[in-house]
Amino acid sequence: MKIQAPKGTKDVLPEESYIWQYVESKFRQICKLYGYQEVRFPTFEYTELFQRGVGETTDIVQKEMYTFLDKGGRSITLRPEGTASVARLFIEHGFASRPMPQRLYYIISAFRYENTQGGRYREFHQFGIENFGSKSPVTDAEIISLSYNFFVSLGLDNIVVNINSIGCPVCRKDYVKNLKEYFLGYYDKLCPTCKQRLDKNPMRILDCKEDNCKLIAQDAPKPIEYLCDECKTHFEALKGYLDAAGVCYRVDPYIVRGLDYYTKTVFEIVDVVLDKELAICGGGRYDNLIEQIGGSSTPGIGFAIGVERLIMLLSQKGLIPQKPQVPQVFVATLGDLATKKAFEIASTLRFEGISTVIEELSRSLKSQMKYADKLGCDFSVIIGDDEIEKGVCKLRNMKTSSEEVVRIESLAQYIKSKI
Ligand code: AMP
Q: Which structural domains are found in the chain, ordered by start?
């Protein structure tokens, strides 16, 4: 039996990898524009980081993590997201003593054992932003506008930012009490996991994926109805800044986000495909996360964009402007001597920045030309013993099939003038 890639993973082939490079370079560009710097961190962490950071009662920690014991008996988890790792990095490297706020970004793979329907993978990729050290709603508006403008820069014009506030530990007490009372009324209908959550963390019932729980959650009290004055003021200020920044948003009181670390602002950016909303970005404020995993109290806010979904959208909407890069020149060879000369010519062309491949399979000239044509090269350089003696080569224009004789020493300059 042939071995296949594991369920929920995806190979990226040459005809698609250039799209990944394209979106990555656009993301790096926008990060630079907003003053964000890249961090890189391990693919796996000690499991405890996600238990404490993401939260014991979340779907991610309870059902979706790839966790195993390593040979030293330590519990290791493949990162299911980036924020907890960046918060760990922030504490471990003493970032609290750096100038605030700290603006960090990352491009990562993440792993969740999920149902593989609806654009969900078990290994997927995220572009993420984290801003540490600012409590101000200006920062919330800044990062929402960063991600909004990123999508706009890619040509997505049908996107909406859904925002909500889920309050802080002060207003949450009252909210959670009411939420618990509400769900108690439906106790028998809740799934077994949600029955447990009712005691430990009723808010997590709001993002349960079971149909029954979803239905019950529809009429549950909403966090926005319980905000304290500080959270209300924060949310109003955010809306004002988003208006000023020209970001298209709407308030969605149902967003709670499936991770425990969020406080105040939460948001999702969606695009509409075939009348269905597809979430391509999710984020929010996490003022207590750093403290929760052992650092000194530092506010923070961030988001993550799903790269597979973003690429799917761009492809569906015909928004991929580039083509895969192909070699510009093919150097054909006829005979041993010519092969040596081909190496020389190819090095010179590459030194001059012209992307070049040479014949590696000693095929007939006709087959070599067919191959060069399939590769999509602009030119082929043809050399045989005769040409070498005269210090020239034949340059074939692959689009028009016309040929001309060019001196080898001026070949690079000549090709440059033509492409
Ligand atoms: P989250 O980390 O759950 O807030 O997700 C942020 C974004 O990552 C989502 O809006 C999705 O676009 C993407 N995402 C999350 N989980 C998956 C998955 N299993 N497969 C593909 N994309 C995902």
A: 14-168+228-316 (3.30.930.10), 329-418 (3.40.50.800)
